[in-house]
C-alpha cells in the first residue's frame, strides 16, 4: 500500500466517525428529549476526542512526507494538499489551549444567555476577557506556523487563502458606495405600501409549503430531509443532508426564505463529487463558498421576481388563501426586498447586512492583532454603527456588541464569510447569465440549467482548487465587488 493510499484509508475512517458525530448532533437539535442531553453530550465529547486522536496520530507526518515523493495525479496532489491542511489545522494548536478555550467559551456563552437580556456588559466583560486572551494566544501560535499576521491566521481556519489585505480592499470599496445606496433605496421605498401577513399559519401548512419549494429547487429527498430546530442549520453528510428551520405561526415569511437558504447549502453538499466522498478534497471549499451557495439560492434565485411569482402561488395554495392580497406577487416581492436600518445583524435585509459584517470584521481584526483591547469594543461599536447605519448603541450593549453568539466562544475570523458569500453569488450570476437564461428558467419552473452551471463550476469541484482558482475558473476573474454593487443597484434602485 502506498503512503498516499494509507492516508486515504485513514481519512475515510475519520469521515465515518464524523458521519456519526454529525447525525448525533442533528438528532440532539431536532428530536432529542431534554433528558437525553447529559448522556448525549458525553457521547459526542468522547467521539470528538477520538476523532482528534485519529487526526493527530504521530505517524501521519511521516506518511505525508513520503506521499509527497510518490507519483501522484493532479487530483491526488490536490487530495494530499487538503489532507495535509486538515492535519496541520488539527495539530497546530496544543491540546491544553484547545481545552482552556472550550471551557472559557462555554462559561462565557452560558452566562451571556442571561447577561444579554439584562444588558450586563460588566458581567459579560469579565468572562469575555479570558476568551479574547486565549483566542489571541491561538492566533499567535497559528501565525507563527503559517508566517502570517495573527488575524490572517484566524481567517485561514474559515477562508483558506483570504487575507486582511484582500478583505480591506474589498470592504473599503463597499464602504464608499453602500451608505448612499441604502439611503436611496429607503427613499425609493418610502412611499410604498406593504401588507404584512396576519392571522395564523399552521406549522403543518408551512412545512408543506417548504417541501414544495424544496422540490422546485430540486432538493434530493432520497438523500436528505427537512426538520425543525431552534437554530436553523444544514447538517448531516452529502449522502444524507439534514436541514432544519424554525416556524412562527404568526408569520410564514422568514421560515420560507430560511428553507430556500438552507436548501442552497444542502444542494452544494448533495452535489459534491462521489469519487472523493469521505476525503477532505471532496468537501466544500470554505465557509464563504458554502455561504455563496445558500445566498445564491436565497438572494439571486429566491428573491427574484420570477421566483417570488412561484412563491406567491405555492403559498396561496398552502394556506388556501387565493384572494388574500398578502400573497399577491407584487406584495410578496415588496416584503422580501424591504430595506430597514436595524441594530440586529441576523434580522438585517440584503442591503444593510454587509454594513453589519464589515464593522465586525474591522473590530475583530484589530482586537486579534492587539491594536485595540476588548474594553474598547462597545465605544467602537457605537462609533461604527453611527457611521454606517446612523444608529447609536451607546449603553445599549444587548443590541450592540453583545448581540452575536460568535464572539462569546471565540469564533474570530468567521464574520467575513457571510459577505464574501454574497459577493461570490453576485459574481456567479453575472457570469452565468452570459450562457443561461436565468429568469426564463425560473419562470418555466425548470431551474435545471441554473443548477447545471452551479454543479459544473462549483459543486463538482469541491476542494480540488484553491478558492481563488475556483472563482477564476468559474467566472474568469478573482472576487470583484463590482458585481455585488451592480446586483444591489439593479434590485434596489
Ligand atoms: Zn448559511
From TrEMBL:
Keywords: Carboxypeptidase, Hydrolase, Metal-binding, Metalloprotease, Protease. InterPro entries: Peptidase_M32_Taq (IPR001333). Its EC number is 3.4.17.19. This is Metal-dependent carboxypeptidase. It comes from the Bacteria. Pfam families: Peptidase_M32 (PF02074). PANTHER family: CARBOXYPEPTIDASE 1 (PTHR34217:SF1), METAL-DEPENDENT CARBOXYPEPTIDASE (PTHR34217). Broad specificity carboxypetidase that releases amino acids sequentially from the C-terminus, including neutral, aromatic, polar and basic residues. It is an enzyme of class 3 (hydrolase). The keyword Hydrolase applies. Belongs to the peptidase M32 family. GO terms for molecular function: carboxypeptidase activity. It catalyses: Release of a C-terminal amino acid with broad specificity, except for -Pro.
